[in-house]
Design goal:
- InterPro entries: DUF4410.
- Keywords: Signal.
- This is DUF4410 domain-containing protein.
- This protein is of the alpha/beta class and 174 residues long.
- It has a single domain, classed as Rossmann fold.
- It is 34% helix and 29% strand.
- It is built from four helices and six strands; from the N terminus they run αββαββαββα.
- Strands 1-6-5-4-2-3 form a six-stranded mixed beta sheet, with helices on one face.
- The termini are far apart.
């Protein structure tokens, strides 16, 4: 019984560890009416030393975001192609990404092997080009055993969900 009591504080600490989540929204101007269409443009990769794999992963973010917007069912139409009508256009930059390593995260711990994803999303009126607001999202995997399922695709989807959730605010009256 005593060995179990000795590891109880460690287990409690692991359970309290949470996924690194940060979102920061800045409104530039309020829309005049709700939008029925969302246009998702490609996210560019803003890293000083980009590599082709990271650029490809950042471009994939737009398709993951489109999927999350469709799943939310707040917009009558979600497109990534050209659209000339009234819509909220979502574009932005992936500012940091690291795929991480689950084996290192679980085996070594202490933040080793963590996955990271950061982006800045801009919400723009598609017809006027007027900036409606920006959202900065940072996601990181959990540490140790709590981070077993927190691989890069999971935290990237979680970031896309955050952006889609904010975009949904433009689909309903404020």
């Amino acid at each position: 019984m005593k060995p179990i009591l000795a590891i109880l504080p460690v287990a409690a600490a692991l359970l309290c560890a949470s996924c690194g989540v940060s979102t920061d929204y800045v409104e530039a101007s309020a829309p005049t009416a709700p939008y029925q269409v969302a246009v998702v443009k490609g996210f560019t990769y803003k890293e000083e030393e980009p590599n082709s794999a990271d650029e490809a992963l950042s471009k994939e973010f737009a398709s993951v975001l489109s999927e999350e917007l469709r799943n939310g069912k707040k917009f009558a139409q979600v497109t990534s192609g050209s659209y000339s009508g009234r819509a909220v256009r979502i574009e932005g930059d992936v500012t940091y990404l690291e795929q991480g390593n689950s084996a290192l995260r679980i085996g070594v711990g202490f933040g080793t092997g963590k996955s990271h994803f950061s982006c800045t999303a801009r919400f723009v009126d598609n017809t006027t080009g007027k900036l409606l607001g920006t959202l900065e999202v940072e996601r990181s995997s959990k540490q140790g055993m709590m981070g077993i399922a927190d691989n890069f695709p999971v935290i990237r989807r979680s970031a896309a969900f955050d952006v889609a959730e904010k975009a949904a605010d433009f689909a309903v009256a404020h």
